[in-house]
């Protein structure tokens, strides 16, 4: 007489439970391995290191262009002041260019450029100075007698120490560039001892 196989109820129950599951997980080779991820990260790092110097150079060129435009605006404001209000003399500082002439609605420079002795714009800091002349007449916008100047010097220095383009201009309206600041050497008329004209 043959013996009936022993019935394992626990194993049968597990087979039934597995059949009721909506899907079965199978081991596959799809997905990223650690080596794949390291390769991708290294590739992104390499591309970024190649692109960053170009981006910094483009950023520096854009800031230099903005600085040149700002100094041209300052030159234009000083010329307008001398012709319309200063009787041939220039403003000795930025704040005076922020005072509108009588009957005028706008000042020679906007508020953001005249609120302090210096201002920051486009990655550069700008300043303007002129030596007052005792015989200078009173200006129409309230600058007292003997306070206007026969010339002025304006400079633009980059805030980023990696940028090596410094600018300066004066009452001749020529803009100069140099690899170091022109703040101490820019005369109120004529060219500085160092630097080259760019216009």
Topology overview:
Elements: H1 9-20, H2 34-84, H3 111-114, E1 118-121, E2 124-129, E3 153-158, E4 166-170, E5 175-178, E6 196-197
Antiparallel strand pairs: 1-2, 2-3, 3-4, 4-5, 5-6
**Cα gyration radius (Å):** 36 Å
> How much β-strand is present in the residues?
5-15%
Q: Calculate the terminal CA-CA distance, rounded to whole Å.
A: 116 Å
SSE-based structural type? alpha+beta
Number of strands: 6
List keywords for this structure.
199 residues; alpha+beta; six-stranded antiparallel beta sheet; 3 helices; elongated
Write a short abstract of this structure:
With 199 residues, the protein is α+β, with helices and mostly antiparallel strands.
Plain-language structure description:
The structure is a single chain. The protein has 199 residues and is of the alpha+beta class. It has a domain at 60-197. It is 34% helix and 14% strand. The chain is built from three helices and six strands; from the N terminus they run H-H-H-E-E-E-E-E-E. The protein has helices at 9-20, 34-84, 111-114; strands at 118-121, 124-129, 153-158, 166-170, 175-178, 196-197. A six-stranded antiparallel beta sheet has the order 1-2-3-4-5-6. Strand 4 and strand 5 form a beta hairpin. The longest helix has 51 residues, at 34-84. The chain is elongated and about 90 Å long. The mean pLDDT is 86.
């Amino acid at each position: 007489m043959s013996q009936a196989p022993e019935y394992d109820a626990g194993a049968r129950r597990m087979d039934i439970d597995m059949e009721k599951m909506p899907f079965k997980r199978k081991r596959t080779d799809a997905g990223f391995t650690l080596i794949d991820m390291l390769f991708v990260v290294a590739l992104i790092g390499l591309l970024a290191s190649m692109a960053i110097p170009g981006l910094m150079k483009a950023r520096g060129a854009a800031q230099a262009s903005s600085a040149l435009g700002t100094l041209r605006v300052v030159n234009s404001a000083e010329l307008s002041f001398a012709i319309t209000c200063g009787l041939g003399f220039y403003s000795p500082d930025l704040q005076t260019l922020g005072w509108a002439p009588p009957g005028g609605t706008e000042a020679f420079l906007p508020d953001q450029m005249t609120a302090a002795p210096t201002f920051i714009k486009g990655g550069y800091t700008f300043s303007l100075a002129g030596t007052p002349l005792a015989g200078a007449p009173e200006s129409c916008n309230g600058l007292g007698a003997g306070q206007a100047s026969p010339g002025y010097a304006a400079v633009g220095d980059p805030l980023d120490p990696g940028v090596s383009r410094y600018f300066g201009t004066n009452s001749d309206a020529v803009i100069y560039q140099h690899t170091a600041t022109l703040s101490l050497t820019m005369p109120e008329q004529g060219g500085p001892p160092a630097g080259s004209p760019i216009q």
